[in-house]
Amino acid sequence: MSEKKYVLAIDQGTTSSRAILFDHSGRIVAVGQKEHEQIFPRAGWVEHDPAEVWTNVREVVAQALAKGETNKEEIAAVGITNQRETAVVWDKNTGEPVYNAIVWQDTRTQEIVDELGGADGPDKYKDIVGLPLATYFSGPKVKWILDNVEGARERAERGDLLMGTMDTWVVWNLTGGVSGGIHVTDVTNASRTLMMDLKTLDWDQKIVADMTIPPSMLPEIKSSAETYGVGRPQGLLAGVPISGILGDQQAATFGQACFDVGMAKNTYGTGCFMIMNTGKEIVPSKNGLLTTVCYKIGEADTVYALEGSIAVTGSLVQWLRDNLKMFESAPEIEELATSVEDNGGAYVVPAFSGLFAPYWRSDARGAIVGLTRYVNRGHIARAVLEATAYQTREVLDAMEADSGVKLAALKVDGGMTANETLMQFQADQLGVDVVRPVVAETTALGAAYAAGIAVGFWSGEQDVIDNWAEDKRWKPAMAQDERARLYRLWKKAVTRTFDWVDEDVK
After folding, report:
1. Nearest by Cα to 150 from 93, 109, 98, 92
2. What global pTM score does this model have?
3. Helix, strand, coil distribution of the chain in percent, nearest 5
């Protein structure tokens, strides 16, 4: 074991950036966190200010080091995890973004996506990249910036502009920025651009050309655990190896020790993301799931996964809080939901950005259905929580159909796992045990493990397995008939959201 005491994880998420200090046992020592602005210029558009995000990253690192009463001398490595499909384009000479980062939830690229698919449709590149053409992914977002920001394409053709997902932006700045910043991404983030060949783990030049993105803009694709560079000389992390990158959901899968084929986890955050390890096999989905890279540790074989992505879960609770003013803080939803015995017949389908897995319907929009005069705030709150569980069940059904593996238990993590009512209803709907670990911050933990393994702070996957510990388990308790009835009505509710967006509705 190294004389170093800690590994630092930087978790650049959708609503906030965090820095978490972990010790060798995988326990949290200190946390720094700061939210950034959510920018909504038009309906369906979601942006972040990359400069604000980078400022916040520096601030939360300082917070974590101060709270942990430590400094760079005691940190063995830094791992990065991030919101995956959010794209940023910046000038390599000035370090200035040419436009706000376009967030994974953003739907403005629908016309680009349709144009790319042409007569071949949304599955045009699926055999190569494992993904359908959809507004979710980052490649078309970069094309939109080049097509719509004045002068951007000319600057890109001159070789002045770089692109990346948020991991790339953070690492470039951490390692020096305009003064020698390293321009890299890892295989998990690259696999979400629509441009990486899953077999070769390299950019597919034909797809890059179809996207009209100059190859000079693309970061170098690396494994998820190797030393990419070190902290810039003038920073708080000067000289510390930056040695782990994992997209947030793959990081959570790693942190949950889902190393065997068929093991799965679900992360409950802004959206919900279920990933099942499929080992060294690339499993094409016939049921609306994504085939993606799970992780690649150094020179070891690439591990692949099936993923079900749900756009709106935790952010639906935020919507009730911020837009409808139903309560002042998100945890209050549980008290409101438990003030009633059931949903009163009401269902909330949060298709705010269309529907992701397993439907991939960009024409859908959110709906509240089944309303009667009987329904009150409590029923709506309960229906909001239940929506997360129903969407998760839809993804699991697809996952079991694709993989042929019946899930024994679902490992869960993320902020919403603190909601006991939701977790019990989740177990009831899935018909399997739902298991939460002691350290629920598995996204940051997974990035820390990848970075620590790269520098020898941890010896390998067995250390992750040994550190993982169960905190709580919820067992199914609902009668089968009632489970089936509720799910049947949910499926009916989902169909009511289809075909909402017409040509003249943006």
Report:
1. 98
2. 0.87
3. 35, 25, 40
